[in-house]
Amino acid sequence: MRAKLGSVFQRRKKLPDGTVKTLSPWWIKYTRAGQVFRESSGSDNRSEAGLLLKKRLGQIADGRFGGLTPERVRMNVLFQAVVADYVQNGKRTLLDLNVRLRHHLIPAFGDLRAAEFSSTHIKRYIAKRRQENAANATINRELAIVSRAFRLAAEEDPPVVVRIPHIPKLPEENVREGFLDLEGYHRLLAELPKRLRLLFVIGYHTGVRSGELKKIRIEQVDLKAKQIQVSRRTTKNRDAHTLPIYGDMGPWIEMALAERDAEFPECPWLFFDEHGSQIGTFRKAWASACKRAGVPGLLFHDLRRSAAMNMDRAGVPRRVIMQITGHKTEAMFLRYRIVNHQDLRDASHRMEEYLSQQPPQLGTPLGTPRQENRQRWETVERKLLN
Predict the structure, then answer these.
(1) DSSP readout, 288-324?
(2) Is 360 exposed, middle or buried (0-12, 13-18, 19+ CB in 10 A)?
(3) Predicted pLDDT at 363
(4) Given 3.40.50.10320, 3.40.1360.10, 1.10.443.10, 1.20.140.10, which CATH number is that of 182-334?
């Protein structure tokens, strides 16, 4: 006699008065490798329960059934796995991750079953975030967390999800455009508060990120060798690199070290505030100073582009510039390189000088193209009239 592969049934419940009530939802029962599974169809229709049973038996037959977890797990569980992954790998963007999850992703997807996640949910989320004036780059960073959650779940053994949805990437206008010339540098330096001036000077000359600069300690500075060693633990790309000390950097560093020795001898940081502590967030002070200096909207990050352009124009080899600024790839470096009006004028002058030095080519017509065309049409016209 052939063993029964599965069954469809309704549950019963005994009431306080002793009577038994049949509950309306239909359930299915099936077996895989000796393990019994019971699953609600979520429907009062027996035919729909039968279809679900056939689906499960088909998945078991071709090896696609991984248990009921992939069908029941919710997005909130997947997001928790992403947080755990960030903690385990010591990622410095953990705080940013938690903010994005708490304010946007969990409210939008947290209670949704991963198996039900679809392109419709992605489109709704993009539309909602755009209504909130979120930039495409911001939306891409948030959806990248969703994609990471699915990949981690799929890599589990056994897998927590049966598929990884395709999440399209929105176009980003991420080419850096801000630039600070030397005149603006001096104006802004005069407007910045005292605690930010050294940070600004080093940033303008080297193009290093503010987060990396703020973590530099006194022992990493060698005034005699005119170098600053940046530890790999503090860089975004985990690569150590060396910064040259040149221009205004030396005098400003000497003044800062003298002030530190006199007022805050226990302070280990090269950049410190009025209390001798490590410099924290300075967005408001920076924005106010930029407005007073006549460069509103300038970002500290724009100093990376300014430094890269200045070094490039000075003839510093590109590989050296990348080592100083901390650009790991040529593509990332090129995002900060622009051609401004002075570059275009220089190119025009060079081409004019080059062309003026070339000998005239044999067979070059004496007349201009416009004159030649006019003579040709006059000849044709005379022939037609005759």
Answers:
(1) HHHHHTT-TT--TTHHHHHHHHHHHHTT--HHHHHHH
(2) exposed
(3) 47
(4) 1.10.443.10
Question: Could you report how far apart the first and last alpha carbons of the chain are, in Å?
Answer: 109
Give the distance, in angstroms, between the CA of residue 24 and the centroid of all CA atoms in the same chain.
50
C-alpha closest to that of 240 among 312, 335, 324: 324
Which residue ranges in the chain fall short of pLDDT 50? 1-2, 338, 362-368
Please report the pLDDT score of residue 289 as a whole number.
95
Q: b/e for 109-133, b at 16 or more Cβ within 10 A?
A: beeeebeebeeebbeebbeebeeee
Predicted pLDDT of residue 40: 79
Domain boundaries, the chain: 6-56, 75-155, 182-334
- Please spell the DSSP secondary structure of 3-57, one letter per residue: PP-EEEEEEEEE-TTS-EEEEEEEEEEEEETTEEEEEE-S-S-HHHHHHHHHHHH
Q: What's the token pair of residue 57?
A: 């038996």
Q: How would you classify residue 298: left for phi > 0, otherwise alpha for psi between -120 and 50, otherwise beta? A: beta
- Other C-beta atoms closer than 10 Å to the C-beta of 354 total 9
Identity of the amino acid at 141: R
Sign of the CA dihedral with 267 first, then 270, 275, and 281 last: negative
Query: In angstroms, rounded to a whole number, what is the distance separating the alpha carbons of residues 346 and 351?
Result: 9
What's the confidence (pLDDT) of residue 339?
52
Provide the whole-model pTM: 0.55
∠ CA 89-91-92, rounded to 5°: 155
Residues 256/198, Cβ–Cβ less than 8 Å: yes
* Integer Cα distance of 30 and 267 in angstroms: 68
Rounded to an integer, what is the distance from CA 228 to the centroid of its chain? 28
In sequence order, the 6+-apart residues with CB closer than 8 A to the CB of 30 are 5, 6, 7, 36, 37, 53, 56, 57, 60
